[in-house]
């Protein structure tokens, strides 16, 4: 074997070793990224999760708004990426404990009984006006001492929360998407899909409650979303009871 042939063989071997090392490194990084994503969502391989759907507040019991369907599709893609499975459950049929399976619950308390229960037990500092039929207070949030009113099509708010029970490592989180209109649920799920890595770095496996604002949905749909504030502390602190009125 002359020098030219030897150099060619060595070059091929070096290229093969470099390619193999690159493949191993890429595979390792991909698996590490997948494990972090699975940990954040509480979705190990082949895990089952629940998609708890609300109903159209103005329609029949099993009618789901179009933007809520889009939100479910966003979540389904996230779940599939984690090599997990999803089961769609109606809001009034999801009778299970908290933390048994990862749960994605969307809809306001007026159209989702499970969301109403979650807000009452897990986020006692949040109130959503589900009584007003018209006027500026329709769907208004009260979080701590602040109030957030909706300007339909221009400025709308949604809560995005990841909540975990105090317990062992196997406790699964529940994700809440509670907004003033159906399009805000889609906006919140899309925000979660885009920013879950940053959220995982910031909060780890802990709980958080974020208030998001959907800007000019009439023109931009669910794509323009602003983070208003991290309201975790206020949302998890019970609101003071109103002072009793005394008769004169």
UniProtKB/TrEMBL annotation:
<protein>
    <recommendedName>
        <fullName>Secreted protein</fullName>
    </recommendedName>
</protein>
<keyword id="KW-0812">Transmembrane</keyword>
<feature type="transmembrane region" description="Helical">
    <location>
        <begin position="6"/>
        <end position="29"/>
    </location>
</feature>
<keyword id="KW-1133">Transmembrane helix</keyword>
<keyword id="KW-0472">Membrane</keyword>
């Amino acid at each position: 074997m002359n020098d030219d042939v030897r150099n060619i063989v060595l070059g091929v071997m070096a290229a093969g070793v470099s390619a193999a090392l690159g493949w191993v490194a890429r595979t390792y990084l991909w698996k590490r990224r997948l494990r972090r994503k699975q940990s954040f969502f509480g979705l190990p391989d082949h895990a089952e999760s629940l998609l708890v759907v609300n109903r159209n507040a103005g329609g029949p019991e099993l009618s789901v708004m179009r933007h809520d369907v889009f939100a479910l599709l966003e979540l389904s893609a996230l779940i599939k990426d984690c090599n997990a499975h999803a089961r769609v459950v109606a809001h009034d049929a999801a009778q299970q404990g908290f933390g048994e399976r990862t749960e994605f619950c969307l809809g306001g308390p007026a159209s989702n009984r499970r969301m109403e229960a979650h807000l009452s037990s897990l986020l006692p500092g949040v109130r959503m006006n589900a009584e007003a039929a018209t006027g500026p207070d329709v769907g208004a949030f009260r979080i701590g001492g602040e109030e957030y009113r909706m300007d339909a099509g221009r400025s709308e708010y949604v809560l995005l929360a990841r909540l975990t029970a105090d317990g062992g490592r196997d406790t699964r989180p529940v994700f809440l998407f509670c907004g003033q209109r159906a399009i805000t649920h889609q906006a919140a799920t899309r925000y979660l899909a885009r920013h879950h890595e940053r959220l995982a770095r910031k909060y780890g496996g802990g709980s958080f409650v974020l208030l998001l604002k959907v800007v000019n949905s009439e023109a931009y749909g669910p794509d323009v979303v602003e983070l208003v504030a991290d309201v975790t502390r206020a949302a998890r602190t019970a609101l003071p009871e109103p002072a009793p009125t005394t008769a004169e």
